[in-house]
């Protein structure tokens, strides 16, 4: 995820683009760059925040330009990898948001044809393709280039050969056009230009647009022109950054169908090798997972996945403990959303000292953890602004699923058919999460039941145990209600003493091999008169005999069902906190990344 913007009009393009990028900075801020046409193409880039870029570039006077603020997915954070990228002769420039899955084969093909590359990004292939295809019309070249791309992209291209236009195209990454008077805009998101116009036209997947100061043309990939109505935006800039959602947390919950797609992009396939993670397989016969907080719950879930799918024994340790008491395991996999968690970096250093092979699962390329680990598995959820982890948690779960399948495939525990079935099911995950999100109103009703309680319990067995722990953590951190998660069989060993009519219990009851056991536990809880809210698989009628309320999720097999369940628990925490008027995006006493020990 990142922010891109293009401008063509009568004002100073440099200033408009810098201002727009600042409004898009919430989408990523590893590095930034702009390209302006003033006679020739002028490119300026810098690492870090937009301000660094602004300070380092001259006042240049072009009226056409593009800009980018990067959230790196391929290639480290560096000036060379910052966008815009240019072709061999510096006549064309592009900015790109997304991931080009087939960039390696395209790059090899282009290099064979004599193109030279100056970055490690996947994006740079796009501009060389445009150079290759150019025969006098930028839009034609873009159209031909994108036909060769596999993956997600929002692209804006300019060329000094046609200095009066910008060309945009999209597939599975956002891009919206701002309509002005004698000027037009295009950007990843509306706040980038909202100060200048609230008239917009949406661009859809598989469409391409040509934007000049006096006109906008939208076409499909066959060149057929498309009439697109204009919409009026009534939001203020701050609301617009949240895409109209009241909080970043809710926006990020809703981004999950997309982030899930990004996590899997290029890593699963219906043909061999099915799962492609680009890490070598040596030393994977014993694994320790280390993490803190929400990432630790992902690690606990990871243990169930790896042991079941790959038959590899797994230890799990809190990073803060591993540092001082951890054992040597041939592979140590650390999970940290920010890649900066001090405890986890400490654990990684310790593991390296023991001579273990180290892998980090993180959302931030170039973060400290990625520099210490031997291998990096990026979760690719895009920047998360709400302090409570949501889309990064489901991205961690999914990355661990891919890792488990990869291990099971490599060590022969899984048969080809099993892997193929998993791949088919994984492909359905984004739409299944969409379905769960459509049940938001039902979940809101449940929030009304728990929002005035002092204590809420969450129970589950197997992989649903860590998901219950995460559900409880989510609720306590944003609603300030005391919440605890338990392995369902453990309630009777003590916590039962706290049960009463005033203690709702959220029971995760998936149709797996411990379903009957969870039912038994629900019966025990009902006998103590506590209200039970079950989260269960669609079609499970029996559960209504036990639970007072049921929220259903579409049928999925182990371990995939953990993802829609996690999404339901996020919405439940969100609406409970909202009913209690809590500062959802910035809970008291908490910070997004914990860089102290
Ligand atoms: N994949 C591109 C890169 O790593 C674009 C990432 C983005 O969307 O910011 O540069």
Write a structural description.
The chain has 597 residues and is α/β, with parallel strands linked by helices. It folds into three domains: 3-239, Aminohydrolase, N-terminal nucleophile (Ntn) domain (Glutamine Phosphoribosylpyrophosphate, subunit 1, domain 1); 242-432, Glucose-6-phosphate isomerase like protein, domain 1 (Rossmann fold), CATH 3.40.50.10490; 439-589, Glucose-6-phosphate isomerase like protein, domain 1 (Rossmann fold). It is built from 18 helices and 25 strands. The longest helix has 22 residues, at 416-437. The two termini are 30 Å apart. It binds glutamic acid. The site of glutamic acid has 16 residues, from strand 6.
Strands of the biggest beta sheet: in what spatial order? 3-2-4-1-10-9-11-15
How many helices? The count is 18
In terms of DSSP E residues, the strand content is 15-25%
**Inertia-based shape:** globular
What kind of sheet is the major sheet?
8 strands, antiparallel
**Percentage of residues in helical conformation:** 25-40%
CATH superfamily of the largest domain: Aminohydrolase, N-terminal nucleophile (Ntn) domain
Number of strands: 25
């Amino acid at each position: 995820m990142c922010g891109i913007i293009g401008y063509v009009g009568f004002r100073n393009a440099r200033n408009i683009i810098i201002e727009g990028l600042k409004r898009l900075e919430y989408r990523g801020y590893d590095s930034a760059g702009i390209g302006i046409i003033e006679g020739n193409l002028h490119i300026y880039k810098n690492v870090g925040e937009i301000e660094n870029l602004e300070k380092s570039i001259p006042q240049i006077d072009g009226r056409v330009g593009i800009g980018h603020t990067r959230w790196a997915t391929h290639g480290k954070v560096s000036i060379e990898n910052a966008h815009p990228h240019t072709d061999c002769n510096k006549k064309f420039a592009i900015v790109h948001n997304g991931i080009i899955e087939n960039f390696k084969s395209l790059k090899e093909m282009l290099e064979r044809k004599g193109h030279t590359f100056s970055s490690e990004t996947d994006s740079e292939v796009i501009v060389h393709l445009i150079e290759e295809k150019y025969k006098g019309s930028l839009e034609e070249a873009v159209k031909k280039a994108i036909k060769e791309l596999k993956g997600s992209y929002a692209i804006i291209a300019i060329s000094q050969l046609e200095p009066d236009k910008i060309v945009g195209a999209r597939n599975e990454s956002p891009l919206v056009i701002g309509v002005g008077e004698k000027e037009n805009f295009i950007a990843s998101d509306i706040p980038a230009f909202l100060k200048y116009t609230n008239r917009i036209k949406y661009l859809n997947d598989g469409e391409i647009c040509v934007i000049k100061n006096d006109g906008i043309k939208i076409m499909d990939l066959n060149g057929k022109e498309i009439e697109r109505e204009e919409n009026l935006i009534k939001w203020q800039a701050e609301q617009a950054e949240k895409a109209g959602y009241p909080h970043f947390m809710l926006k990020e919950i809703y981004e999950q169908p997309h982030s899930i797609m990004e996590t899997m992009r290029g890593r699963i396939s219906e043909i061999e090798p099915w799962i492609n993670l680009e890490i070598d397989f040596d030393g994977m016969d014993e694994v320790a997972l280390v993490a803190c907080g929400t990432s630790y719950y992902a690690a606990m879930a990871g243990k169930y996945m790896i042991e079941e799918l790959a038959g590899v024994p797994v230890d799990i340790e809190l990073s803060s403990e591993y540092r001082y008491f951890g054992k040597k395991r041939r592979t140590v996999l650390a999970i940290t959303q920010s890649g900066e968690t001090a405890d986890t970096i400490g654990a990684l250093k310790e593991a390296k000292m023991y001579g273990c092979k180290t892998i980090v699962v993180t959302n931030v390329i170039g973060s400290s953890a990625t520099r210490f680990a031997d291998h990096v598995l990026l979760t690719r959820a895009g920047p998360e602004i709400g302090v409570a982890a949501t889309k990064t948690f489901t991205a961690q779960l999914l990355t661990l699923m891919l890792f488990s399948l990869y291990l099971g495939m490599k060590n022969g525990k899984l048969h080809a058919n099993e892997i193929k079935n998993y791949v088919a099911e994984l492909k359905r995950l984004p739409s299944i999460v969409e379905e769960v999100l459509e049940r938001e109103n039902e979940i809101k009703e449940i929030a009304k039941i728990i929002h005035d309680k002092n204590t809420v319990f969450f129970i589950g067995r197997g992989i649903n145990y860590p998901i219950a722990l995460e559900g409880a953590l989510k609720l306590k951190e944003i609603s300030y209600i005391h919440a605890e998660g338990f392995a369902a069989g453990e309630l009777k060993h003590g916590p039962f003493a706290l049960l009463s009519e005033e203690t709702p219990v959220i029971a995760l009851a998936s149709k797996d091999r411990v379903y009957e056991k969870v039912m038994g536990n629900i019966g025990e809880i009902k006998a103590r008169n506590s209200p039970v809210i079950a989260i269960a698989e669609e079609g499970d009628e029996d559960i209504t005999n036990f639970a007072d309320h049921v929220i259903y999720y579409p049928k999925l097999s182990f371990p995939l069902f953990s993802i829609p369940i996690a999404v339901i628990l996020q919405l439940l925490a969100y609406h409970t906190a909202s009913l209690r008027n809590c500062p959802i995006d910035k809970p008291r006493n908490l910070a997004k990344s914990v860089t102290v020990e």
